[in-house]
Design goal:
Helices cover about 30% and strands about 20% of the residues. By secondary structure, it is an alpha/beta fold. A hairpin with a 7-residue loop joins strand 1 and strand 2.
Amino acid sequence: MLDFTAIDFETANSYRGSPCSVGLIKVRNGLIVDEQHWLIRPPEAADWFDPFNISIHGITPVMVSDAPRWREVLPDIVAFIGDDVVIAHNAGFDIGVIRYACAVDNIEWPAIDFLCTLVLARRAFSLPSYRLPFVTEACGATLEQHHDALADARAVVHIVRGLAVLAGTLDLRELASLHLVRVGRMESGIYSGSVSTASGSGSLVATEANADADPEGHLFGRVVVFTGALMSMTRQLAWDEVARSGGTPELNTTKRTNVLVLGDFNPANLRPGATYSGKARKAFELQDKGQDIELMTEEDFLRVLDGRDLEVPDLGLLLDEPTDERPLDLI
């Protein structure tokens, strides 16, 4: 049966754990039976609003001044979800909001199974963009008020319905299985993302760069290395996307590297004295020697795959200053 809860968060700033709004839609047999929306005061340690985020969703500090704190609203969110599979568009972000907000408040992660419509859509469709409005339209609906959390959650419902019709199934886990997408799982101390399993788990294979890719594309002709866990796709699929875009994926950071993609990484952690992966440390060393290496979050990577401009600060400059990077809910 198509029984699930759709969810969408908006955040106050670039830190994932700064929820300021959440929309939840409960679905039974494909039909909406309940919905809930809360404004939220972010955890005290992440309680500030970036102008950019305000420009996206329109939520201001004054609007949440009387709203419950994250620790107060989380039990209600968990109660609304119950035993449902939670579905989000770019679940790596929305489930990440829960993980990071709980971490900053020293709260144990709730146990949640989840599925990502962004990953499903990449398996089901060939679209110019896999952002929420495009995928919603591909499923026969129109997204009104993008970045209103409840409206975005409703769009997720439309996407699941559309994908189910195309796949000829009314079972959520069968829908995931047909598209070779794993249902993710989060619980205390354990996280397994909702990603495609289509390419298997063997050794990574670098296909030849697509010579017909757009030469103006951000990754065209560039050598790309990944470090850390990706939330939206397997590493092999990420490599395939780089090659499709005319770039060359490689395993390790070298003098050839042009781009380092930081998976499951909070850009606010780019600061002196922080602990980095070996690939990231190597990139910093090469930058110090004058090599031009661009650091990207996973959201940056998804954005350039869709042909969008980054329009974000160079993460390399954030080692000495707080980040103003865009939030990861721009999908």
